[in-house]
């Protein structure tokens, strides 16, 4: 497996905008908790009703992660900034995005719920021959008694790019 090269700029600095507040976007996901994405990482949200593995965004092929099963039709694609332009990532989903501003103290880390162990989320991102635990790619949090997944977008992008090449 290739080593993940990170620049000195850490995405967490995007989260702590002012006075301990997080600006996040809730992205709907099927058969798992909705995803929390830092709003400042979103480059575009486009209507797109065709399931694709790469998305042509501003003359760049961006790898796509699907938050829906293959038999469900998507209605939008969300392009996210990466560590480099080659490591940008797109999420394909259906449903409305919701913006949320919460205090850091409202976000509680929790263990991965048991029902997530019965999903194919890790098989979507990780090759079957690698033994990877869900917590490697996701952190589970709770805000106002609702569970969300906070994905490690860098690792997901690198996994998808490695699979694609």
Q: How is this structure best described in words?
A:
With 165 residues, this protein is an alpha+beta fold. Helix content is 15%, strand content 35%. The chain has four helices and eleven strands, in the order αβββββββββααββα. The strands form three sheets. The chain has a five-stranded mixed sheet with strand order 3-6-7-5-4, with helices on one face. The longest helix is centred in the last third of the chain and has 12 residues, at 153-164. It is globular. Residues 1-16 and 122-135 have low confidence and may be disordered.
Q: How many distinct helices?
A: 4
Largest sheet data? 5 strands, mixed
Question: What would you call the structural class?
Answer: alpha+beta
Calculate the mean pLDDT score and round it.
79
Low-pLDDT windows of residues: 1-16, 122-135
Write a brief caption for the model.
By secondary structure, the chain is α+β, with helices and mostly antiparallel strands.
